[in-house]
Amino acid sequence: MSSQRSVAIVGAGLGGLACARILQLRNIPVVVYEREASMSARQQGGSLDMHPDTGFAVLEMAQLADEFKKVARYEDQGIKLIGMDGTLHFDSEAGDHWDTEDDGNRPEVDRIQLRQIFLDALTPDTVKWGQGVSKVVEKDNKVTVHFIDSALEPAVHDFVVGADGAWSRVRPAISPAVPEYSGMIYIDNFIKDVQKKYPHLADFLKSGIALVLGDNKGLISQRNANDVVRVYSAFRKPTSWPEEVGLKALVDGGRWDEANQLLLKQYEGWNTPATGYFQVPPFSMDIRPLYALRHHSWDTNAHMTLVGDAHMVAPPNGVGANYAMLDGAELGVVIAENVSANEEEWLKAIKAYENKIQQRAWASQNEEFSFGLMISEGDSAARAAATLKQAFAAAAQK
Ligand SMILES: Cc1cc2nc3c(=O)[nH]c(=O)nc-3n(C[C@H](O)[C@H](O)[C@H](O)COP(=O)(O)OP(=O)(O)OC[C@H]3O[C@@H](n4cnc5c(N)ncnc54)[C@H](O)[C@@H]3O)c2cc1C
């Protein structure tokens, strides 16, 4: 290949944006096709902690660490694990630390702020909003990108990056894998002006994240920027459950106060101020069944690859966004360094990238401390706390 390959990214999530930024820093032209109409088209989800060797390392590679530090919340790194009876099993603010170099070094940031930092750094018009991809088709060493909006002319590229999340439209062109239901559902809502209007709830959470756990359920609250608290009600239930109990109709119909009453009933007998979250009006409500793609691999293709959730979606385990960013940034470097390489060298480089991201993803999927452990039978808070303490003790010895 004598000329540069033309590159397109599908999906302007953190993985796609990190890849685009690294490419532009190295003067490689790139276009990003994004299904959403704009940055504010939907609720952006909660707060993410940036880990030093993954998410934060990418921010440094992308020359955006200073921008990040302006909005990073170093004060929100606390974690509490609480039982259904109110017993506090783990509290990082009261001395349960992990005592490694990561300790105190995983600042939080709202996803919307992080995404905006990357968007602001890209050259204008890099992201094509409202251009959702329906499928990609490989033919004659090119990839044709077809759009959901049939009025849009299909686009042809040499290389397409699937950064379009769990239900990627790029993935089916290179892999038959389909995410499987993890057995767990999150009902996600958020509350505004918590300190101002509901100081008793602010006092309960204080900072960071509080997980009240037990009997295959969880009530997880997380402080976000601007006096917002995000609340996840977590259940180990079949996907049909929200419909069966009438929750889906209430959520879809915007009857969120009634949905809250129904949720509150699920926590009957729990002795925690966290149930108070259901007594105040929420500002959004979504039902999220959680899916997973485990130990996923595929045959390397010279014209397409994947980053982030498109290849490794998992129930929240604290690394998804960090890894998506790292995948994207590492791929950006690989593309930039090989963009005019011959077929053999190019394929070798893409294969090496894929091996690396797959190994990383698989290792995280093998980790013991996961959402699956937390949302389990009986006193899961006590078990999760014990596992967490063991893991931190082991990490501190390294
Ligand atoms: C409740 C919850 C909490 C989490 N908490 C954390 C955490 O604390 N720390 C952490 O590291 N990770 C966390 N994660 C995981 C993290 O959110 C994901 O791993 C991460 O967002 C993956 O990034 P991505 O760029 O690969 O995909 P996504 O963030 O899913 O972005 C994909 C993008 O592609 C777009 N898109 C989708 N389909 C198309 C299409 N057909 N055409 C064009 N565009 C398309 C989407 O609109 C989106 O903008 C959490 C996940 C959940 C569900």
From TrEMBL:
Pfam families: FAD_binding_3. It comes from the Eukaryota. One of its GO terms (molecular function) is monooxygenase activity. The keyword Oxidoreductase applies. Keywords: FAD, Flavoprotein, Monooxygenase, Oxidoreductase. Residues 6-363 form the FAD-binding domain. SUPFAM superfamilies: FAD/NAD(P)-binding domain. This is FAD-dependent monooxygenase.
